[in-house]
Amino acid sequence: MDYTTIIGLEVHVQLLTKSKIFCGCANLFNPDNPNVQTCPVCLGLPGSLPVMNRKAFQLSVKTGLALNCDIASFTKWDRKQYYYPDLPKAYQISQFDLPFSADGWVDIEVPSTGETRRVRLIRAHLEEDAGKNIHDESGRGADSRVDLNRTGTPLLEIVTQPDIRSAEEARIFLEDLRLMLRYLAVSDCEMQEGSLRCDANVNLHVEENGETIPTPIVEIKNLNSFRGVEAAIEHELKKQVKAWQTDPRRMGEVPKTTVGWDANRNATFEQRGKEEAADYRYFPDPDLCPVTITQEEVDEIRSTICELPGVRRTRYVSELGLTPYDAGVIVDQGAEFASYFDEVCVTCGDGKQAANWVTQDVQRELNERKLEIGEFPVSAPVLGAVLKKVVDGELTIKSGREVFATLLSDAGDGTRISAERIDAIIADKGLGKEQDTGKIDAVIQAVLDRNAAVAEDVRNGRMQAVGPLIGQVMRELKGADAKDVRQMILDKLQG
Amino acid sequence: MSISELTTAELQSGLQAGTFSAVELTQSYLDAISRREESVGAFLTVCGESALSQAAAVDARRQSGEQLGTLAGIPVALKDNICTAGTKTTCASRMLENFVPPYDAHIVTRLKAADAVLVGKTNLDEYAMGSSTENSALGKTRNPWDLQRTPGGSSGGSAASVAARLTPLSVGSDTGGSIRQPASFCGVVGMKPTYGRVSRYGLVAFASSLDQIGPFATDVTGAASLLEVLAGHDERDSTSVNRPVPEYSRSVEQPLEGLRVGVVQEHFAEGIDEEVASSIRAAIEVYRSLGAEIVDVALPHSKYGVAVYYLIASSEASSNLARYDGVHYGHRASEFENMVDMYAASRAEGFGDEVKRRIMLGVYALSEGYSDQYYLKALKVRRLIRNDFDAAFKNVDVIAGPTCPTPAFKIGELVDDPLQMYLADVYTISANLAGIPGISVPAGFSPAGLPIGLQLLAAPFEEEKLLRAARMFERETDFHTKVPQF
């Protein structure tokens, strides 16, 4: 059986605004104190009216631009009408036929195939999130409760074309999307908290007797982890392949089904179809004015977009000579980390050196101290200054590490330290690279004189004997470069 | 003459001169309420104690020489679809019979800032849907001129309150004529401002794109004073327009030079009572005698107004009223099987027939496959109706005509004939669809002694012109000085 996997995603992203989309209530994840971030507007009380949060719209446009979407100069709000206890107005303010953005794309790199996949985006529109129903799960049938803290959180819905060809691609798309949204600082994208949510539409295109037959689409709802996305789609695909082999059905022969994902049982379960018969009776919301945006305003928002992960990764490889792996490690840590790296790199003038230190020394310290890069006591200019001395040959790498460690222990209480400390540490500890070859030569001669037998071994070609000699020299000359010392010893003995 | 028969301006100067105190004035209106309210039924809630304490506060502040608001000490009644913090706001519906809003509507905040005395909440057709106040689930309001007749609607309680001199001023809302039609039936002045002139924040929505709050008064000057307080930008209403509010009460006495009055001949065609037609013709002659130019204007699409209105208003209402589902507030059925059943039972019990009729009409008009031919088509015709007015107001300052085709009808006369009831709004609806301001002023009495109203319409945001034109007519006539005796 020859078939192609067809996947389209609908992604919901909560925007990081201070207040909700249509009222002044705080936009915060606060599940432990239900119904405290509410007002007449988000409670849908009689007589209340929505007012659009400009910031939410700006963040949306920013995201639309980063997703390569066209931004509509005219967009409006529509009411999507349905009854549910978490929806106090019995309609959701959303965008129906004129979304603020459409026709975008995202390119993803797929390691297993080594290919780049372009995932086209149908649209991205802005809407208000609903509240949360909390049902009694004890089975004793107690009343359900409704928490409206989340009601009115600005929510961006991003809809892809069915361009995704595997569960792995779906996961990568989502991971890349999350990274991009975090770079843009438009969302924190915490899947556990529901600020990034995903529905997947999955079916197969079966090739049979020269014909391409689409199978019925299954929608998997509310996937709330990256692993869940991959596992649920994988599971659903297997099910569909088996279904085709036992009881082949074409798209349209059975209604679209909606399933949920049970991560504990690793299985999908059928949900009651509220979708199928739904007529949302969309119509323009008469309480809100349409939104117009000029090219100048779009350009202004575009100018606030930072260098995005994909572009950054490419630049690190092609301009700084980093390996794709190192570039990926740096970019994946987030915009702040990558900017730290950039600054270290500019200060010391050596991308590879900067990458080594940032991905190894800095990351190790961050992990050990459980710090974010913004809290790291050795700032980028300070680390850059240390590395500049290494790059310029004034400091050995080993001494550089000692300076770094000393800076960190100086900053024990977390206070930031300045570049002035570097020279003091070098002087205190005598870490400056010994440049006086006469002095080095004298020390080497003294060591050789004391260890005549070992020297003789080396002279006879027993190269492993050179190590202890270097060690003795280095103990006397802290700032010397071990490589230089080794060469000088060999020159003396073999030259 | 008792205090309660004075005009707003006379009350204001009496208070300023110290002829009577705000407490005396308020007490005299509360006395009128206790004498006549039982026959009229204008109110759903009377807040006597709090009214007296507001009045006492005004007196105290006046005593200490404080600067007071423009309506200081003047009693005002509010239609019971305008939210008042801590006071029930029922919309005359079982659904909200016990609903107490936690917040004040914008206009309530403004009235308080103007030091008005809020006397109570007036009856209406349930959720403002109706033309007779008979659709109220919570009370019956009678026309003070003939207690067997309706006061009109939906702001019937507010109109009757002013007509019976239970308050000198009141506030209503007008979605298709709900201020002007009861003003006409009750022989008082009632005005619907331009859409966006008054904030709708806190007005329980019926049809969001048509609803507008406006004043009732015994005379044009009183309406001007009240509008001055109600009007103005409010950030909480995105459809509220940010432009300055003229001092209507100052300019209202100035006659307009070179006034051009438009007349629509179709208004005098079939369906209009002859007694109404002759009063309105006489009113137009008053303008002619004042030197105004009378110009024929055409509003060719107005004949579609009623159909367009019932599609748009019902569509929006079906959505606006969906929130009353028994989950968060309002009436919840006591017996139900499951969630969907709870919705159905709560709504079936909570809403009256007319509300259900309009919700069903609206749901149908917005349904997939039908919204193109009903809702969207109605929006297009609405645009054409507005275009007619834009063209007409290039040639005239105001359009004059009847407010309603007939004087007040009898209670029960039309309850089984909703279509005939809808036609009571035939002259008023177009102003809501076009978003323009309109006013109804007393212009005569039928042989049976029932008031007849003259409607004047003007271009958007020409409230000042409208009030001045209305005052020119009022000054020449004495219909507004008549008080119903019962």
Classify the oligomer.
heterodimer
Approximately how much helix is present in the residues of chain A? 25-40%
Count of beta strands of chain B: 11
Radius of gyration of chain A: 31 Å
- Give the count of helical stretches of chain A: 15
Largest sheet of chain A: 10 strands, mixed
Shape call of chain B: globular
The end-to-end distance of chain B, rounded to whole angstroms, is 16 Å
Shape of chain A: elongated
Instruction: Give the termini separation of chain A.
Output: 73 Å
In total, the number of domains of chain A comes to 3
Number of helical stretches of at least 4 residues of chain B = 16
**CATH-wise, what's the superfamily of the domain at 3-258 in chain B?**
Amidase signature (AS) domain
How large, in whole angstroms, is the Cα Rg of chain B?
21 Å
Structural class of chain B: alpha/beta
CATH class of the domain at 3-258 in chain B: Alpha Beta
Which percent range fits the helix content of chain B?
Answer: 25-40%
The CATH architecture of the domain at 3-258 in chain B can be named as Alpha-Beta Complex
Strand order of the largest sheet of chain B: 1-3-2-4-6-5-10-11-9-7-8
Strand-helix topology:
The complex is a heterodimer of chains A (495) and B (486).
Chain A: E1 2-14, H1 54-66, E2 70-71, E3 74-75, E4 78-81, E5 91-94, E6 101-110, E7 115-128, E8 132-134, E9 145-147, E10 154-160, H2 167-183, E11 196-208, E12 211-214, E13 218-223, H3 226-246, E14 257-262, E15 267-270, E16 283-284, E17 291-292, H4 295-302, H5 309-318, H6 324-332, H7 335-348, H8 351-369, H9 380-391, H10 397-410, H11 420-429, H12 437-450, H13 452-459, H14 466-476, H15 482-494
Chain B: H1 8-17, H2 22-40, E1 43-46, H3 48-63, E2 75-79, H4 106-113, E3 117-122, H5 156-163, E4 169-174, H6 180-186, E5 189-192, E6 212-217, H7 220-230, H8 248-251, E7 260-263, H9 274-289, E8 293-296, H10 305-320, H11 339-350, H12 353-366, H13 372-392, E9 398-402, H14 418-422, H15 429-434, E10 438-445, E11 451-458, H16 463-476
Parallel strand pairs in B: 2-3, 2-4, 7-8, 7-9
Antiparallel strand pairs in B: 1-3, 4-6, 5-6, 5-10, 9-11, 10-11
Helix pairs in contact in B: 2-3, 5-6, 7-16, 10-12, 10-13
